Amino acid sequence: MTAAVLRAAGLGKKYGRRWALTDCNLEVPAGHVVGLVGPNGAGKSTLLNLSVGMLTPTAGSVEVLGAPAGKQLAKVGYVAQDTPTYSRLSVAEHLKIGAHLNPGWDHSVAERRIQSIGLDPKQRAGRLSGGQRAQLALTLGLAKRPDLLLLDEPVAALDPLARREFLQDLMEAVAEQELSVVLSSHLVSDVERACDFLIVLVDSRVQVSGEIDTLLATHYRLTGPRKDQKSMPKDQHVIAASHTDVQSTYLIRTEMPILDPAWSVSRLTLEDLVLAYMGRAAQPEQTGRPLLEVQR
Q1: 0.70 exceeded by the pTM?
Q2: pLDDT, mean of residues 252-261
Q3: Radius of gyration for the alpha carbons in the chain, expressed in angstroms and rounded
Q4: Which residues does the UniProt record annotate as the domain ABC transporter (predicted)?
Q5: Over the stretch 12-39, which tens digit does the pLDDT of each residue have?
Q6: Segments of the chain assigned to CATH 3.40.50.300
């Protein structure tokens, strides 16, 4: 397996006059469960569809497992939005199709998962609950024995219990098969439960990416007497800022110690971090302003 299971360079996709994905540059290292987070319409599904070759880029390129997207389909598992299954086909017929289409199909994995989640092989998919259909779709993806599994918001429509069971089964499969996963979601709780690498996608652009532990260790909330951003040290990259008449609060990213005794310093939660980047301006580098600024 290559060092990067997914690599995008200047990747973009345009529909008419609208860019669904713009100037996407990212590198997903092997061996991680990646949370791809962003609001609806941010470009998450577009990125995943480009990655499996279902869409053709308007700009840039995307490589999967060291080859152009669509060239490594035997090694890539994909579960699209709404966990699509064929309502008229039985569970067993789904597995038969999976075996026919995938040369690396592992029948023992499929059978073991179907038994463990209690699915009747004779039951039609149209009569399964949403959670059961999601588990069936995950089974088809895992039995393919992929090196990379792409999941496009597979649990968005599930109730909390079904969502937890799905993510628990996913983590067990990751540990057993040692595969890499990209999990698209707009729920931070799902990312906290299952992922160790984060990509935040907003307004068709990647805002931040990296290992979650590293991101949390390098982001801080500073609270203290009102202070203009221009006076902040250059090594403190301002993500968001809010002010009252007498007080300033900054969310910053830095790898250096914070030495100013005027600041009260606290760590961010993953939700704090994601929400700060989701409030980011479309082109912050060109404005010279903080990515999210609130005046009170």
Answers
A1: yes
A2: 94
A3: 21
A4: 6-228
A5: 999 999 999 999 999 999 999 999 998 8
A6: 4-210
